[in-house]
Structure formats: structure tokens, C-alpha cells
Amino acid sequence: MGLEQFKNRNVGTQEYKVLNLQESPKTPMAKFTQVAKRTFKGELFVGLGVTVREMFNALFRGQMHTVKYPLEKLPISPRYRAIHEMLRLLESGHYRCIGCGLCEKICISNCITMETRYDENQRKEVSEYTINFGRCIFCGYCAEVCPELAIVHGPRYETASEQRASFSLFEDMLTPIDKLSLQQEYDGFGAVSPNADENIKKTPLAY
Amino acid sequence: METTTLIGQLPEVTAAGVAIKAILILAIISAIAGFGTYLERKVLAFMQRRLGPTHVGPYGLLQIAADGIKLFTKEDIVPQHANSLIFKVAPVITAATAFIALAGVPVFPDFTIPEFIPVLGGTFVPSIASDVNVGILFVIGMMAAGLYGPLLAGMAQANKWGIIGAARTAIQFLSYEVVTGLSLLAPIMLVGSLSLIDFNEAQSGGITSWFIWQQPVAFVLFLIAGFAETNRTPFDLLEHEAEVISGYATEYSGMRWGMFFIGEYANMITISILAAVVFLGGYNDFGFIAGWIMILLKVAFFFFLMLWVRAAWPHVRPDQLMWLCWKVLMPIAVINVVVTGIVMMV
């Protein structure tokens, strides 16, 4: 099942048919003719035909509607905002976060806490980073404000866990180093738009 | 009634054979009734583009066992203000009459138990448990008596939905019974016998000798009345969930409710067999296909038709059912009988 049919919000452009509901018959003769007409018109068999057609569609043409949820999941939009993920740089494998603290600053429910320090190379290092998912409202501001696309929203929407802290540590959200090749680039909220190149203009230097 | 020709060629039917047949019918039809619930859920699901039961066993086949365990282990509740005796007897009436009705119709082919089996070896097990010469009358009467189950159950359980269900049972019973009898009267006139074996013999001359060609109107009428008799969808007034919760079965749970269910499915099988034997050539051989396969195919078709109709059609109001049966179907049935009589006289 593709994503397209879920994205189609064009309600109103479909082909609606207006039913031709005539007035109920008044005289006994008119009633009788209506009954006789309906009896021999075979409308009932149209209904039977529809159901058996749908059965064949479901069984042999792959139009079964059931999604066996825990086993298979519907595709979600790339702009979906679920549990956060911290991404790594593809070349070095180092985490992308530069410790600027913008996400902590912009978070409207104050659920991001981070501590940074300078490492031996005088580079900002994230020593502690937690998101309190009990407070998080998944507004997406942190991902939008992040200049490095380091904190993004992932597709993990099943957030039931035994402990509150389960998802919220930096190491839990960070892409595992052995799964680096599988890291998906985020194209949701805050990401560079697909036509970003077209929008770049030369900065006029001459006044 | 003259003796039927089929009996003469076959070994003598002993009491032991009939007893074995009765046990066979009870065991197999009960199992098929359980399997029928699985089939119904699957077919309805496919027609609505769902999957139906899938998780218990391969293709969900063990769902029947799971349902059975659930039904047997459920708490047995008799409501406080219910008439407890009638409340307990009513489901037994439905299930028992359904199986008694099956005694009069041919179910499964006849066979002789091999000689090497001790005690029972050589016993001939007939196709019909009890070949009464008024077979149709017996079966129809028994199935009609089966509606005492819902009627008594609905009135005994001290529940308003039950009362409505019982009232609708009475309505339904009064409506379809006339049509069933009158629609079957025309083929009975043609055959001149009430025995189902005579019906089978009369249609032994291939597909052109089936009574559906001579009596198409009677066939349609009988089918409609049969749907009403088994409480199937266009006429499932007795327990329609959206209107009367579960109607006569509102207060029932566990195996008491299960007996209503088994009775309903056994009735569906009986009606299917009746329609196959009376109108569609019964268990005669069809070309190279053996007779017992033919009747299984026909019964399976009618069973599927009942599920199909349930998926496709809405159901009617009680007053519409009475209107249909008394003002439309009964006159047509009477005209059919009269025309058949005139044609036979000429």
C-alpha cells in the first residue's frame, strides 16, 4: 500500500453521484408497479455482484484493507514528529551536535536539558543531554532550529515503555555507530527543502 | 405410501446402524456447525476486504477450538428474575429439534462397516437415519418446532430485548411457515410422495430432470422462506444487534448461547440439503461426479449463498417481512400450486 492514497486530501474532486430519489408512489397501482419493477430489475443481484467482486479484489488483486499492525505498519509522512533521534556525521561517525544549545533555548515546554564543556581540542562536547518525554509536546521546534540537522524527529511513534527515561538519554537517541550506514537523512521539519539549490541567490556585493 | 425402490437394493437397516448414524450426524454436524462459524467469519471478512480470524492456528483454523474453550468455560448465568426452568430448556429445544430434523434428510453417503472390525463389523449404516415416508413433512415440522426455542427463551429471561426478540420470533414463524408449505406443495404434487428418496428418484434423469426447471417459482419461494426459517440475514429479525441487542439471546452466555448457535447452523445445513434434494437433483450421480460429492457441492453452494447474502443485503423490518410473506409470496405460492395442478390435469 503506497503513501500516495493517504496523502490525497483532495476531498471534493472525487466523482460524487447524486442519487435520483423519486417520490414515493401514492396510489395502490403505482405501488404495485414499483414493487414489480424492483422485483424484476435484479437490483438485489447487483448487490451480490458487488460483494463477490470485492472478495475477488481482496483475495487475488491485493486490495485487502487489513494492516496486521504490529507486524506491518503503514508508511508515515516524513514530516511526522515522533521520538527524537540524534544523527551522526556520515564520514567521521562523530555526533553532529555542536552543543550550541539552541534546542534547549527554543524548547517551549522546557524539556531539553544539556550540559556542554570544552574537550582537549577546545571543541564543544556534549557531556549530558536529556529530553523529558513526560513534558515534550513534539512541537518540532528543536529539529527546526538545529543548524546541523543533529536533532531530528524519527519515525518511532510507539512510545510505551517501562521507564520514563527509556528514550530520553543522548545515547538512546544517537544513531548506533554500527548502524551508521543505515542512518536516514531527515527531510522533515527544519530540513533543507528539496528545491533549496534553486532558491540560493548570489549576495549582491556592490551597493 | 408405497415402499421406495432404493431400499430394496440395499442391505437391511439395523438398529445398530441407525444408532451409529445418529452418533455420526451429531458429531459431524456439530463440528461442521463450529466450522461454519469460521467459514462465515472468513467469507464475510473477505467480502468486506478484511482478513477475518488469522492468528489462532494456520489461517486461523484453530479459532473454532478457542471459541469452543471460551464457550465451555464461561460462567453459567441465569438471570435473577428469569423463569429458570424454561430459560434452561429453551436452548436445548433449538439444538435438539435441529438435529432431529437432520434425522429425516440424507446426510453423507451410506456405507458398510468392514468385517474385520469387532462387534460392529458388517453393520450397514444408512444415508438417512430414519427413512420415514413423510420425510419432508417431518423435517419441516421439526424445524418449525425449533422456533419454540427462541420464543420461550425470549419470554423466560425477564429482559425487554428478549421480549421483543420473542415477539419477532412469533411474527417470523407466522409469516414464513405458510410460504414454506405452499411452495413445497407443488413439487410434492409432481412427485406424488412426501419421501425425500422419492424426490431423489424422480430427478435421476440428469440435469434436465431437476425440479428447478419445472418449478422455478417454487424454488425461489422456498429459498426465501428458508432464509426466514433459519433467521438468516434479510430476515434476521430475532437477534439483530443494531436494533434489539441480541434479541432472544440477550441474557444467554456460554454453552447455552452456543446451543442456539449450533442449532442455527444445523438448520442452515438442513435447509440446504432440503433445497438440494427437492429442487436440484439430490444425490444423483452427475456425469462422472459421484452423487455424494454432488450433494456436498450443492449444500456448500447454498451455505455460501447464505453467507453471501448476509454480506450483501440489508435486512427488512418485521412489518415488511409480514407484508412480503402474506401479501406477495403466499398469493404467488397459491397461484403456483393451482397452475401446477392445472398443468398436471391437462
Work out the helix count of chain B. Answer: 14
Shape of chain A: elongated
Helix-strand makeup class of chain B = mainly alpha
The interface involving the most residues is between: A-B, 17 and 14 residues
Strand order of the largest sheet of chain A: 1-4
CATH architecture descriptor text of the largest domain in chain A: 2-Layer Sandwich
Portion in helices of chain B? 55-70%
Instruction: State which percent range the strand residues of chain B make up.
Output: under 5%
Ranges of chain A where pLDDT stays below 50 over 5 or more residues in a row are: none
- Mean pLDDT of chain B, rounded to whole units? 84
The quaternary structure here is: heterodimer
Strand order of the largest sheet of chain B: 1-2
- Topology pattern of chain B, helix = H, strand = E: HHHHEEHHHHHHHHHH
Instruction: Return residue spans of chain B where pLDDT drops below 50 for at least 5 consecutive residues.
Output: 1-8
What's the CATH class label of the largest domain in chain A? Alpha Beta
Cα-atom radius of gyration of chain B: 21 Å
Main sheet attributes: strand count, strand direction, barrel closure of chain B:
2 strands, antiparallel
Radius of gyration of chain A: 29 Å
Count of discrete domains of chain A: 2
Q: State the end-to-end distance of chain A.
A: 55 Å
Q: What does the secondary structure layout of this molecule look like, with pairings?
A:
The complex is a heterodimer of chains A (207) and B (346).
Chain A: H1 4-7, H2 28-41, H3 43-60, E1 84-86, H4 102-106, E2 112-118, E3 124-131, H5 141-145, E4 151-153, H6 170-173, H7 196-199
Antiparallel strand pairs in A: 1-4, 2-3
Chain B: H1 5-9, H2 15-47, H3 63-73, H4 84-102, E1 111-112, E2 124-125, H5 135-145, H6 148-156, H7 160-191, H8 196-202, H9 211-214, H10 216-229, H11 241-244, H12 254-279, H13 291-312, H14 318-345
Antiparallel strand pairs in B: 1-2
Helix pairs in contact in B: 2-12, 2-13, 3-12, 4-5, 4-6, 4-12, 6-7, 7-10, 7-14, 10-12, 10-14, 12-13
